[in-house]
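Re: the 961-residue chain
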Amino acid sequence: MSDGNRAANAPWIRTRLRTAPGAAVALAVLVLVTAFLAAAFPRAVDAYETKGLRHDIRTADAGRGAVEVSRPQPGLELPREQRDAEVRSPGLARVGGALLKALPAPLRADTPSVAYGIRTMKPVLATEPWLPRPDTVPPRLSYTAQTGLKEHATLVSGAWPATPAEVTSSSRAVQGAVTEETAAALKVRVGATLKLPTATRGPLMVTVTGIVAPRDPRGGYWSADPLLRTPSLVPDPESPFPQYYWTGTVLLAEDAGPALLSTPTEPTLFWRIPPDASELTGPDGARLTSVIASLESGPGLLKVREIAGGTADVATGLGHIVEANARMRDAISPVIAVAALGIGSVAAVVLVMTGALIAARRKAELALMRSRGGSLRGIGGRLLAETAVTVLPASALGLLLAMLLVGEGRWWPGALAAAGVGLLVCVALPLRTTLQHIRPALHGAREDMVSARPSRRRTVAELTLLVLVVGAVTALRRRGTSTGGGTDLLVSAAPVLVALIAALVLVRLYPLPLRLAARPMARLRGAIGFLSLARAGRSSAGGALPLLALLLALAPAALGGSVVAGIGEARDDAALTAVGADARISGRSERATLPGELDRSVRDLDGVRSAASLRIEYGVALPEGAAGDGDADATGSDAGTRTGTGTGGGDAEDAGGSGGARTAALVGVDPASYTRLARTTGLPDFPVGRLRATGSSAPLPEGAKSGPGRVLPAIASPAVAARLGTEPHAVDTLSGDFKVRIVGTVSRVASLASTNFLVVNSASLEQKTPTTLLLTGAPDPGELRAAVGGSGKDFVVQLRSEERARYVNTPMQAGAERIYLAAVAAGAGYALLAVLLSLLQTAPERRTLLARLRTMGLTTGQGRRLLAFEATPQALLAAGGGLLTGWATIALLSPGIDLVPLALAGVAGADTSPVTLRTDLWSLGLPAAGVVALAAAVAGVQAWWASRRGSITELRAGDSR
């Protein structure tokens, strides 16, 4: 009896899985992929933020990244023995070890690169006659006794500096060493002696016993203070004339520090602690900023002073590095959040559509169970158990794959995301299925979007949702999208909100064109058009879900494409601003002029299309008498592009305040050649006709001087034009003295990043020799540099392509770009799946229709056209809605997205003016066209598959379809 009962009560879950294994496997695969993507996203974000933070710290200048604790020499009130002991290696090492242990997490020290010792803060005038003296000024040297010299350097000649006897503050002889570069520049040899003045009893003699070479010249040990490695030629600030002198550093023996206490060089004790970025993670950035602030002026500084002394101070640029990284992260986060929320919404809609498809396929089965007394709770419980057996292991496996395949990151955000996917499917599928059987439904009723009228409850629900969403979008538009840092969910949900509005509105408007088109189609002789419209008007109750999924997939794709296009345009524009054309030739000094043979040889090179010679003079003083014409908008800086560096600078006085621009760059051009160059490079139109050299501005004879009555027409920047007005004003330049009258304005000039400039005809100048040559075309870089090198080493070549190559992605930018591309690809996959699910839901009915029509004479080609035409209205609806959604999303988010941190961050000298997000037509049009092509392809494949099946298979007796 018991055996018979067990045979009669077969387990429900095992029976269902054996009955429909394909559906269970398909659902498990869908949940696996979705859970993997959901768990991988936060780990990938953590990974690129971690790599970005480590990269910024490791590549930063060692002097900025290191944490340096310093304090003045021990007080004179202390005994001499105690003062000497505090600056010797054991005393310094004791304090350094305590400082390393006291570093608060997550700040950790790069222990092998830690250095501590004593150094002179006031350079000493070296009077030795054998030292080089450019401009007759003797060099000034600094001295340091720090640990780790033997570990970070290689002995080239001589011997390591040592302390044969204990060095005290009374010692008058110590040993030292210099690097190879210092020895070469200052002509220092092994055995040379240097004198340091002391307060009493004669000078301190430093004997150079060795010359060393750094093992890692770019490492923190040598780069924290570049003078340790490389001497520098600096201008004398005390001289009224431009005079230069050498400055460098002499490395003393480790325990020779007490000897510096007797010198008037302001000796200072220091402990330099480079950070170890290998254990830092992206989320540690905020904590690291707080820790550094505490060390600089907070509780951390008090603890440092307890260890190193009450006068100790902490200096580091690490906080600025972390803050720059945080600004980059804040600039990237909104864009990534838009993609994540959009693709997450697409995935949720597809999962719900999967539940709707399963519910439609099992509708008859569950209706039979309901008619035989099955309760909704019992049916829902069985469906929940059946779903959980398939979904939960798939979610766990997706999480495991994400943990194994995606880089380091926190585990709990991914676990929550994967659990959310599993919970959504376990709840949505049984709930969606059981809700259809609350009330008995008569068989045979069909849903027709053309003739059907939605219920009042549905209308009220849709109107309520529409009002809420429109209110959210309106509030977002009014307050703006700039959040001042961090990610705003309302901003990130903008594509979802816009897509939801579009889906609700378009689904309601969709029947109207079908009704209008059905009437003329009914009058035609062919039946394909009418049948396709009739079929397009018949839809399932979940018809809005495929449209919503497509719109949600199109909006992030359009936004991402516009962001990528905007980044490319910003980098191209920055490269053009830095160089001025495809290539630029100029002197190393701003007053260097180009020889005529150089101009001719370069113009004849292969690949050069055109050339324009310019004479650029910076810092031309504008008349003070015209200051009243300026306004607040006339401020700016004469920051022209100088001396082949890609950037330039003017005087600080260029910021004119209320008086407007005070200095400007004078640019002499040949109007015809410069106009051609401006048109080729895409610069603003240049009013060439206004710079004709006629009348008082006619070219001067050879050797003639320009007089004060000579008036030249000039085209100015808006700031300069506002200052000078339309009256002639005298200017004094190296190109001659004359008056200028403003005849037009342009916003930009090739080769200048300046906001203040005057453009005149170079033929009207007294000195016409060009200082810059701009080329368009694609000349061979090697040939171009060889041609320029033939005229001497005083000229440099800049290429726009090389400047453009400087704007490369940092690890954070590259990681964010990969995540966004992956999100767009995932969105495309889910969009394809949404189209497939929407067609699969009505596939049995469509196959039956084709079988019946084939018995009436419908050919295979006509059947394919019927299905293609049937899918066309919905595809066009999705494409049009996608265009509208993408455009609205970009218009809504563009005020709060600045592409400068994404495009130009980390590039020195790059133009950092704001770059706003603009709509890219290709990014809008291609995804929309892809939707139409996708729908047509799916319809064609379905028609081809249906044609392979016989009509007898589809038309079975008693089939209710």
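The longest strand covers residues 608-621.
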